[in-house]
Amino acid sequence: MSQDTSKASTSSQAADLAASPSESQASDPALDSATQPKDEEFARKAHRLAEEVFEEVVEEKEVNGRKVKHKGIYLLPNLFTTGALFSGFYSIIAGMNGDFSAAAIAIFVAMILDGLDGRVARLTGTESAFGEQYDSLADMVSFGVAPALVAFTWMLQDLGQFGWIAAFVYVAGTALRLARFNVQVGSVDKKWFIGLPSPSAAAIVAALVWVLHDFALESALIQILVAVVIAAVGLLMVSNVRYYSFKDIDLKNRVPFIALLILVLVISIIALEPGVMLLLLFLGYGFSGPVRSVVRRQTLVEKKNAKGEGTR
């Protein structure tokens, strides 16, 4: 028994002696100082190689009358934009595979992510020109190309030339809407959108596909009606009709308790039949602009007539 114990202790001491050189070697300051320049040189070469392969994004801003250059991009808001872009691309793939309900849901997911990227950028102070351009390109895919291709694959292709023209009118309307929005940033009232916003237009098309596909409504009359609606939505995006933007709502301030109850009620109603409720919701928003314009014009005419009668 004692011999076994002595053998075990001897073997453990030998293992410690065998391990001690490597441990002392790993913690040797001289070795650390010798390998540090090599690591730094490797990092510099890797960074230089990355710059040669991938051109760095450089933004120029004017701060206190001086032009300051910034390299790189902000990761957090662009992650949300990338997620929206992925959802739009997935919607196209799902539509090509005949899964139109999943294609419509993916467009709504893209809407949520698109709404978050701008808010996250403003809250974290990570707004940039690169982010604005990237967001517009992602919107073109998620809210322009994806809804049009899904609708065309689902139903419009049966209408032949009339079907793809209706889809193209929608895609062109989205592109023009986004281009006009980019050049008008900062020069229009933030309380209103000029023309139907592209996410809302995409929501109308996606909900229309979702509902009609689930209820198997695919008659010739329905096909023509869908083509007309999609083309009309495309024209509304480039119109001068004003839509309420909801941007003046401050989510950081306190609100009455009933506001939360109303929100819970709205979510519960949408959950009963998501496709139908979302279609009614966004169709109502789409009609709100033209209805408001007609009412506003009628009010102005009445005021003008009343003023004319008063001066007689």
UniProtKB/TrEMBL annotation:
Keywords: Lipid biosynthesis, Lipid metabolism, Membrane, Phospholipid biosynthesis, Phospholipid metabolism, Transferase, Transmembrane, Transmembrane helix. The keyword Repeat does not apply. The chain crosses the membrane at residues 73-94, 162-180, 192-213, 219-243, 255-272, 278-295. It is a multi-pass membrane protein. Its main location: membrane. Residues 1-41 are annotated as: Disordered. Residues 1-14 have a biased composition (Polar residues). It catalyses: a CDP-1,2-diacyl-sn-glycerol + L-serine = a 1,2-diacyl-sn-glycero-3-phospho-L-serine + CMP + H(+). Pfam families: CDP-OH_P_transf (PF01066). The keyword Transmembrane helix applies. It comes from the Bacteria. Its EC number is 2.7.8.8. One of its GO terms (molecular function) is CDP-diacylglycerol-serine O-phosphatidyltransferase activity. It is found in: Endomembrane system. Belongs to the CDP-alcohol phosphatidyltransferase class-I family. This is CDP-diacylglycerol--serine O-phosphatidyltransferase. The gene is pssA.
